[in-house]
Amino acid sequence: MEFKYTKNEISIKDKTISTLDSLVIDFTDILSNYAKYVVVSGYVAILFGRSRTSEDIDIIVEKLDFNKFNKFWMEVSKKFECINTRNVKVAFEKYLSSGTPIRFSRKNKFIPNIEFKFPKLELDYWTLSERKKVLLNEHQLFISPLELQIPFKLFLGSEKDIEDAKHIYKVFKNKIDSALLNEFNRKFKTINLFNRYLK
Amino acid sequence: MRTPHVDLKELEKLKNDNFKERLEFIEKYVEWLKKTPNKEWSSQQRDIIG
Predict the structure, then answer these.
(1) Which residues contact A116 (CB under 8 A, 6 or more apart)?
(2) Does any CB of chain A come closer than 8 Å to the CB of residue B9?
(3) How confident is the model at residue A119 (pLDDT cuts 50, 70, 90)?
(4) Which chain A residue's Cα is nearest to B19?
(5) How far apart are CA A97 and CA A118, in angstroms?
(6) How are strands ordered across the β-sheet holding A9-12?
(7) From the CA of B16, how many Å to the nearest CA of chain A?
(8) Is the peptide bond before B37 cis (omega within 30 degrees of 0)?
(9) ipTM above 0.85, yes or no
(10) Strand partners, A143
(11) pLDDT in tens, B3-37
(12) Is the dihedral of CA B47, A115, A142, A40 positive or negative?
C-alpha cells in the first residue's frame, strides 16, 4: 500500500472505490457543508485495506441546533433517507438530542448505512477536535486519530475489533505517535491486549 | 498534547448501549428483509459482501 502520512493528513491515491467508500464520500460531501464530523470505528480499518466489509459506518457529528440540522436534513434527503424516522423533529428530538444515533441509507436501500450521532463523551469531543484529514483519491474525509482508534478497538474487544486494531497498527506502526498510543493504551487499560496481539 | 479523560465505566455503558442499538437495528433489518423481494435485498447484500 502506498500512502503519504503527515501529522495532519494521510493521502492515498489510485484506490478502487468500493460501495462503502462511495457511500462515505457522497454522505460526507454533503455533511461537511453543515458540520464538523469524524468517521470512527470499523470503516477506518476498511479504508486502509482491511479485507472485511461492514453494513454501517459510524460518524460523530458536532452538535447542531435544530435549524442547522433541518437544513442538512433537507439537503441530505435528496439522496439519502433516515431509516429510523421520516420526521426531522423526531430525528432531532427523540433520537439525536437524547443521545441515540440515527441511520441514513441511500434512498430505497437499507444497507449499507451511516450511523450518525452527536458527541457524548469528552473522548468524542477530543476525537472531533483532533480528527485527521484523509485524501482518498481526490476526495477529502476526516477520521479518528489512529493512536486513539487502536486502543479503543482493543477496549471493545471482540475478535473483529482486535483484528481491526492489529490491521491499523501494522499498516501505520512506523508513522503513528507511539507516546500518544501508549497513553491511550494506559487510559483504556489495553496494554496487555496490545502486547499480546499487536506487537 | 492534552488527552481526554477516559471513564471506563461510562465507556462500558456506551458499549452496551451500542450493542443494544445494533440488536434493534437487526430487528428492523429483518422486518424489512421479510417484506422485500429476494432480487432487491440480495442486490443490496451483494453490494456489500460481493
Answers:
(1) A59, A61, A96, A101, A102, A103, A104
(2) no
(3) very high
(4) A156
(5) 8
(6) A4-5, A9-12, A132-136, A139-143, A37-40, A56-61, A113-117, A102-106, A80-82
(7) 10
(8) no
(9) yes
(10) A39, A132
(11) 999 999 999 999 999 999 999 999 999 999 999 99
(12) negative
| A110/B4 touch (CB, cutoff 8 Å), yes or no | no
For residue A120, which residues of chain B lie inside 8 Å, CB to CB? 14
Is B6 inside a domain boundary? no
Count how many domains chain B has.
Answer: 1
**Residue B34 is part of which domain span?**
16-49
Q: What is the pTM of this model?
A: 0.95
Grid cell digits, residue A174:
512506523
A130 to chain B, closest Cα gap in Å: 10
- Burial (Cβ within 10 Å: 0-12, 13-18, ≥19) of residue A183: middle
Chain A residue numbers with beta carbons less than 8 Å from the beta carbon of B30 are none
* Nearest-neighbour CA in chain A from B49: distance (Å): 7
Whether the CB-CB separation of A45 and A164 falls below 8 Å is answered with yes
* Domains, chain A, with CATH or none: 7-144 (3.30.460), 148-192 (no CATH)
